[in-house]
């Protein structure tokens, strides 16, 4: 029983971390786009 609950928690944490990483990547992409727009403008 304990193993199952800990495994579930691990999966939840993994998904949360993945979402954070994806968000960071998206933020970097948006910042790059903003810089490009400023250069073109």
Description of the structure:
There is one protein chain. By secondary structure, the protein is an all-alpha fold. It has one helix at 2-40. The N and C termini lie far apart (60 Å).
Short description:
The chain has one helix at 2-40.
Radius of gyration: 18 Å
Major sheet summary line = none
Which blocks of ≥5 consecutive residues have pLDDT under 50?
A: none
Q: Give the termini separation.
A: 60 Å
Shape: rod-shaped
Series of secondary-structure elements, N-terminal to C-terminal: H
Structural class: mainly alpha
Q: Would you count the extended β strands for me?
A: 0
Mean pLDDT: 78
Please indicate the percent range of residues in DSSP E strands (runs of 2 or more).
under 5%
Count every helix, treating DSSP H or I runs of 4 or more residues as helices. Answer: 1
* Overall helicity: over 70%
Features:
mainly alpha; rod-shaped
What is the topology?
Elements (H helix, E strand, L loop, with lengths): L1 H39 L1
């Amino acid at each position: 029983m304990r193993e199952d609950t800990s495994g579930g928690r691990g999966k939840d944490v993994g998904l949360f971390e993945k979402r954070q990483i994806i968000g960071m990547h998206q933020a970097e992409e948006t910042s790059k786009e903003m810089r490009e727009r400023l250069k073109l403008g």
